[in-house]
């Protein structure tokens, strides 16, 4: 390979997708806050007006859009992009030399053919399925959120075994919504479950803090929380996640 080809291959962004079959495990929260902390990093600065980091949402229902409507865009350390499930928009970013990371929020897909035969693509035929297949083709890394609540475990396993592994997409499980007031029993249980499945895991969980839920309503990200002990801990969780992501890329 010539040096010129090398540069061309490195020119486009890396795609990190946040995916989990079940809703409520924190895909949208993780997308905007991961984009925010990595967008703040000195590694992700650009000379041009385009931000190096994009948070993208492919949900035709527009969950990222609802959040983004609350935000004064010029204050964000990342750009956001809402495709509403339109195929082709994200692929068009592949060669953009000004973009370094695209973090993609995906919708849940509980409704999609869970009974498809092993080895068959269970995503089926729909606008969401087509949008998901596009980001799966683009993905350099998948983040699968799971909670100490066991209801999210089987959908995480389904996502990994039926969607990610057959495509050879590298992935990491991250525990979200760990309530520090609960002690470590539930946390240890979910860690054990992940480790028994030999799934790569982000070492530390993302803790459950009320400010995250309020922030979603107010269109804030973790880099903008009013200074407090909780705000620092909340930010630390996403900085740890960003570090694990960068190590894996
Ligand atoms: N670490 C957290 N601490 C507190 N609330 C959280 C946390 N992560 C997610 N939430 C809240 O839980 C709900 C579901 O999260 P969300 O990111 O919308 O999940 P998903 O996109 O996977 O459906 C939202 O109300 C969100 O504000
Ligand atoms: Mg969501």
The major β-sheet equals: 7 strands, parallel
Q: Provide the low-confidence segments as ranges.
A: 1-8
- Determine Rg (CA atoms, Å): 18 Å
Give the CATH topology: Rossmann fold
Architecture per CATH nomenclature, i.e. the level-2 architecture: 3-Layer(aba) Sandwich
Number of helices: 8
Topology as H/E string?
A: HEHEHEEHEHEHEHH
- The residue-averaged pLDDT reads 89
Strand order of the largest sheet: 3-2-4-1-5-6-7
Overall form: globular
Structural class: alpha/beta
Spell out which ligands are present: adenosine-5'-diphosphate, magnesium ion
The fourth-level CATH homologous superfamily is: P-loop containing nucleotide triphosphate hydrolases
- What is the top-level CATH class? Alpha Beta
Helix content: 25-40%
How many extended strands?
7
Number of domains: 1
Which strand-content bin applies to the residues?
5-15%
Distance between the termini: 21 Å
Please outline the helices and strands:
Layout: H1 3-11, E1 14-18, H2 27-40, E2 53-57, H3 63-68, E3 79-82, E4 101-105, H4 127-138, E5 141-146, H5 153-164, E6 171-178, H6 185-196, E7 206-207, H7 210-218, H8 229-248
Parallel strand pairs: 1-4, 1-5, 2-3, 2-4, 5-6, 6-7
Helix pairs in contact: 2-8
Magnesium ion binds at residues 27-28, 63, 105.
Structural account:
The chain has 249 residues and is α/β, with parallel strands linked by helices. The protein has helices at residues 3-11, 27-40, 63-68, 127-138, 153-164, 185-196, 210-218, 229-248, and strands at residues 14-18, 53-57, 79-82, 101-105, 141-146, 171-178, 206-207. The protein has a 7-stranded parallel beta sheet, sandwiched between helices. The radius of gyration is 18 Å and the shape is globular. Residues 27-28, 63, 105 line the site of magnesium ion.
């Amino acid at each position: 390979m010539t040096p010129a080809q090398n540069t061309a291959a490195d020119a486009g962004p890396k795609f990190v997708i946040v995916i989990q079959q079940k809703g409520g495990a924190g895909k949208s929260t993780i997308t905007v806050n991961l984009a925010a902390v990595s967008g703040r990093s000195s590694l992700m600065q650009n000379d041009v007006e385009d931000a190096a980091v994009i948070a993208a949402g492919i949900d035709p229902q527009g969950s990222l859009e609802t959040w983004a409507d609350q935000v004064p865009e010029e204050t964000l350390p990342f750009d956001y992009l809402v495709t509403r499930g339109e195929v082709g928009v994200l692929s068009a970013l592949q060669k953009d030399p000004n973009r370094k990371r695209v973090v993609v929020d995906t919708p849940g897909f509980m409704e999609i053919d869970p009974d498809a035969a092993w080895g068959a693509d269970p995503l089926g035929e729909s606008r969401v399925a087509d949008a998901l297949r596009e980001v799966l083709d683009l993905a350099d890394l998948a983040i699968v959120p799971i909670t100490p609540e066991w209801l999210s475990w089987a959908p995480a396993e389904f996502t990994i075994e039926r969607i990610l592994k057959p495509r050879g997409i590298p992935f990491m499980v991250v525990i979200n919504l760990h309530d520090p007031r609960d002690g470590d029993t539930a946390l240890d249980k979910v860690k054990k479950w992940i480790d028994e499945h030999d799934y790569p895991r982000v070492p530390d969980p993302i803790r459950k803090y009320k400010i995250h839920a309020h922030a979603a309503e107010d269109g804030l990200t973790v880099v903008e929380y009013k200074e407090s002990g909780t705000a620092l801990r909340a930010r630390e969780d996403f900085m740890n996640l960003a570090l694990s992501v960068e190590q894996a890329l």
